[in-house]
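tool_call predict_complex ligand=iron/sulfur cluster
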Amino acid sequence: MIITKQKELKEILKYLEGEKKIFIIGCGECSTTCKTGGEADIKKIKELLEKEGKIVTGYCIPNAPCIAAQVKLEVAKNRVKIESSDAILVLACGLGIQSVKENLRFEKPIHVGCDTLFMGAVDAGGIFLEKCSACGECVLELTGLICPITRCPKSLLIGPCGGQNKGKCEVDKEKDCTWILIYNELKKQNKLHLLKELKPPKDHSKVTKPHQLKV
Ligand code: SF4
Ligand code: SF4
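tool_result ok
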């Protein structure tokens, strides 16, 4: 899931300067789960914008605004309201925002309402955790299914730095050192020999951007 955080109202208002009538596009998937672009979040920001003298002409919540067809469908359904607006505010991740830009087909300014933070998993307590950085060449098989690239602040691939202290990370003392976790996990699985294997250098060309994949 893509984790987003709504921008401060002050920043959004700066973007909307000189524009009175605003149409809002949210997201029915990740941004709804993150409470940044679902119906309740849109209603909340609508109220705040109205207090600041804006008119919210309407809103729509494509199931997944990162999917072009979803944006086109919702835009078609809301064509009149969007045409009567001065601008559009998108409460979605960077993918959704760019997809709205590419599929809108109206000459309207589009504004960014959220910051996109990371690709995250949600734990049982509802906390979003970054566990994968989409490096293009997964090493989890060799690391006890714990990602050193994302979970070690230095993205070390061959073992702990000298800074770990009693199993805690030198960068964030509240957190366990990822490489100690990896060691313990491999030990539990009787796979400590994996740590001794010589591995080829990571192919960083696999993270060359922008990626494109046809399925
Ligand atoms: S190694 Fe880590 S960052 Fe790379 S794909 Fe696997 S989980 Fe994601
Ligand atoms: S202490 Fe462990 S988790 Fe922290 S930066 Fe060093 S190797 Fe990475």
